[in-house]
Amino acid sequence: MSRPTHLAVTVARRPVAIPQAHDFALSTVTLPDLAEGQIHVRNHYLSVDPAMRGWLSDAKGYADRIEIGDVMRAFAVGVVVRSRAPAFHEGDRVMGLFGWQEQAIVAPDAVMLRINADAPRLSPYLGVLGLNGITAYFGTTDVCRVQRGDTVIVSTAAGAVGSCVGQITKRLGGRTIGIAGGREKQRQCIDEFGYDAAIDYRSEADLDAAIARCCPNGVDVYFDNTSGGISDSVLRHIRIGARIAICGTAAIESWNPWPLGERPNRHLLIKRATMRGFLATDYRDRYAEAVETLSAWVDDGSLRYREDVLDGIEAAPGSIAHLYAGKNTGKLLIRLSAAED
Amino acid sequence: MSRPTHLAVTVARRPVAIPQAHDFALSTVTLPDLAEGQIHVRNHYLSVDPAMRGWLSDAKGYADRIEIGDVMRAFAVGVVVRSRAPAFHEGDRVMGLFGWQEQAIVAPDAVMLRINADAPRLSPYLGVLGLNGITAYFGTTDVCRVQRGDTVIVSTAAGAVGSCVGQITKRLGGRTIGIAGGREKQRQCIDEFGYDAAIDYRSEADLDAAIARCCPNGVDVYFDNTSGGISDSVLRHIRIGARIAICGTAAIESWNPWPLGERPNRHLLIKRATMRGFLATDYRDRYAEAVETLSAWVDDGSLRYREDVLDGIEAAPGSIAHLYAGKNTGKLLIRLSAAED
């Protein structure tokens, strides 16, 4: 059932800033033997996530850094083709850290989610029903504690996480303002993801004025995926008791050296505001709760999502640069030959 | 009982950065009539607080800004000499926003604390038993949720707030590291306020190395009274789940224009840390709880404090600059002629 060799993307060199195609190598490698306690997964879709830049950086981050020559760490969805671990069986559908490769031999703790046998498609479990949706779910409900009537700004508002944050916030009774780059994403915010207002930061000469126009009473919650100048502007408009979730830093090209920006201290002090960094993986014990809720919302049509699918593992090496250029519209995925949909 | 005139310090012009003596005017003014519902307080001690700089700034802050010609807003302790408000009586001892003046005609809501008739001295109610102690109490117990075993760094560690934070943290079972400017304050941290370690940031060539030496396992809690380079260094050493209280920004000369510093976003994200601004006044409903606890600790000798007393209202105009120069050792107060101790 397993093939002796398969295609895998390894790290060829450490990226200086945004990882580019030439930082990776695609090669045919021999699959290791399946040891006792391991599972063998055939990947259907590979994920492309902003966090991958951090995993590759030289700096000490929130996950063990990846070494040169390693298969690129990545989330993927696939099917168990053989198991020597008691909790898994052939045919099980799983999402986890299976890497940018066609097949994976992994320990069971690489699996982050089991996917119901009756789920119509696997790919949403890398996005709206995977870590993007889970991040949005806990970011809004737990980190930002969105309340009915809150004015909520979301950066990268049409992105895989942002679009979920906007829609979940609406369900919780918040007023949503999306910040996105470009007219098309601005349109998506309104037409597809139900934001009450959307700002195209690229075409606004004065982002502060645009925020003031959309949030005349100030900002209660800021779900920050960008850092940088967008965040500086939003911070100038927070209200007393504001909650700011730090989820990503897409606007920062490199953290080496550490970039300068306006110190937030006085805003936080005057407004008695809270700024909190979080990772979905801190909520691992509650994934099932989130996925169940998000699935129900997808099924009833109240949680919409977009996918931007690149075909073939050959597309993987250049995909992070594609993501950071903001060229994707929706969750960026790589579809492999094993995928049936 | 009241005199028709008294001495008051008014704001002569808006300070550019740290308020200086020449930004104020001392003059003899006529006391207004006591209207129905008001109280007449004779001040014994006037307070000098870092927050006064913010009150005077042109920028929109957390309190109504003070206008040119107004009596300088200030906390003071004193005695009610006449009352036309039902809840107050002649002889009542009170702490509140009575201004930099010898006497005050105020509404009852200017009173922030009533002082027990058996309290031996009034001045502690401007410091360790006043907003400094209350700030430290809620900052450690509520904002930072200090737990047994936490490693806690305090900036301006020998100051009026910082010295309380260090001592309260010890009582809660934390390990305390003080950062202060100068050898004498470093000594006070250890000898008087019981810190486990103290760093004199002025004599350290490499503050990061000093922090790493004092906190080999990283920092769980940072009680930040400074902002600036000290905070940048501490942030580089926080642990997962760290809590950072933003209480003051003593290291920042001016917030106009907004100063630049290292963006904290990625530290907060990687470490899933929380940075929260707070003001003691948000806890007004719980002052009595805090003062009762703090009083018991002062009485049993486990909460020590220092006062730095300047004599006469003539000392008030230059006192904020004195404070920001770090020349005081302990809570800075102005003693007026009415004071009996």
Automatic annotation (TrEMBL), chains A, B:
Record keywords, A-Z: Oxidoreductase
SUPFAM superfamilies per UniProt: GroES-like, NAD(P)-binding Rossmann-fold domains
Domain of life: Bacteria
InterPro entries hit by this protein: ADH-like_C (IPR013149), ADH_N_2 (IPR041694), ER (IPR020843), GroES-like_sf (IPR011032), MDR_fam (IPR045010), NAD(P)-bd_dom_sf (IPR036291)
Domain Enoyl reductase (ER): 21-334
EC number: 1.3.1.74
Keyword Oxidoreductase belongs to the record: yes
Pfam families: ADH_N_2, ADH_zinc_N
Molecular function as annotated in GO: 2-alkenal reductase [NAD(P)H] activity
Annotated protein name in UniProt: 2-alkenal reductase
